[in-house]
């Protein structure tokens, strides 16, 4: 494990050398980082890491994005996710996989009361609609690994929530 200063990511280019595959799940919240900090982490850091990975020899980049990502969205979160998807694709990897999960079901160390309520509700809804509104983080992680072991055809693969569920359980 290498600890990097993302404010000076370019100084850590050696950490990105010699890897065939890159996985990126980097993100924060607007509540934690403010609007500018959110954009810096979720778009700028991710795009710069992708560029360093490609320069270091990475051939397949796997990006966790979000359901509804759209560079034209009026909503900051969805717009930034769409912008970073476009930036990562433009880097020129041999293959790029983008996962767009719905609400992530996980246990957090920090307190997020509204997220907890949403997770309880969506966790219950998953009994009726298992792939519609949420996905456990473990399923996303398994899908990320599986997409590298069974890469799709062409330069780009985009996996929506249902496909993440299917691949993550295979």
Automatic annotation (TrEMBL):
NAD(P)-binding domain mapped to chain residues:
2-151
Q: Name one GO cellular component term.
A: cytoplasm
Q: What is one Gene Ontology biological process annotated in the Swiss-Prot or TrEMBL record?
A: import into nucleus
Q: So which domain of life are we looking at?
A: Eukaryota
Pfam families the record matches: NAD_binding_10
InterPro entries per the record?
NAD(P)-bd_dom, NAD(P)-bd_dom_sf
| Protein name as it appears in the record | Protein HTATIP2
Q: What is the scientific name of the source organism?
A: Elachura formosa (spotted wren-babbler)
């Amino acid at each position: 494990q290498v600890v990097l200063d993302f404010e000076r990511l370019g100084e850590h280019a050696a950490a990105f050398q010699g890897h065939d595959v890159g996985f990126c799940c980097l993100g924060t919240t607007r509540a934690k980082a403010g609007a500018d900090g959110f954009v810096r982490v979720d778009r700028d850091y991710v795009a710069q890491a992708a560029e360093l990975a490609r320069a270091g020899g990475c051939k397949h980049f796997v990006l966790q994005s979000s359901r509804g990502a759209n560079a034209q969205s009026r909503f900051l979160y969805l717009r930034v996710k769409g912008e970073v998807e476009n930036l990562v694709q433009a880097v020129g990897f041999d293959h790029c996989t983008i996962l767009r999960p719905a609400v992530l079901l996980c246990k957090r160390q920090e307190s997020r009361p509204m997220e907890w309520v949403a997770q309880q509700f969506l966790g219950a809804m998953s009994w009726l609609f298992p792939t519609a509104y949420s996905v456990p983080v473990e399923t996303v992680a398994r899908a990320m690994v599986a997409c590298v072991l069974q890469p799709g055809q062409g330069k780009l693969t985009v996996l929506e929530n249902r496909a993440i569920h299917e691949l993550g359980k295979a």
